[in-house]
Write a structure and sequence with these properties.
Helix content is 13%, strand content 17%. By secondary structure, it is α+β, with helices and mostly antiparallel strands. The chain has a domain at 25-72. The protein has a four-stranded antiparallel beta sheet. The relative contact order is 0.24. Bound molecules: zinc ion.
Length: 83
């Protein structure tokens, strides 16, 4: 039985950004909640995992692990700060 073949992740969520296809970094939902305005919080789904896209050229900042949700930098919440 090879139940654990070649897997570094305990979760099955995708980490590739749906926009730029770069691998993102999984973040806790609380991280998004701390950044988002209240209106966006209603969109978050606790059962989803969320991934942060660190590509500065990409319009997506966070996305859910199943790609059902994306959070864009252009929406009205605190933008990323680089450098
Ligand atoms: Zn991206």
């Amino acid at each position: 039985m090879n139940c654990c073949t070649a897997s570094n992740n305990t979760k099955v969520a995708k980490t590739e950004c749906p926009s730029c296809v770069e691998k993102g970094k999984t973040v806790q939902l609380i991280t998004i909640k701390s950044l988002h305005k209240a209106s966006a919080l209603e969109l978050t789904e606790p059962e989803n995992s969320y991934v942060f896209c660190s590509n500065a050229a990409c319009s997506i900042v966070y996305f859910s692990g199943n790609h059902s949700q994306t959070f864009l930098v252009r929406t009205s919440w605190v933008p990323k700060v680089f450098g």
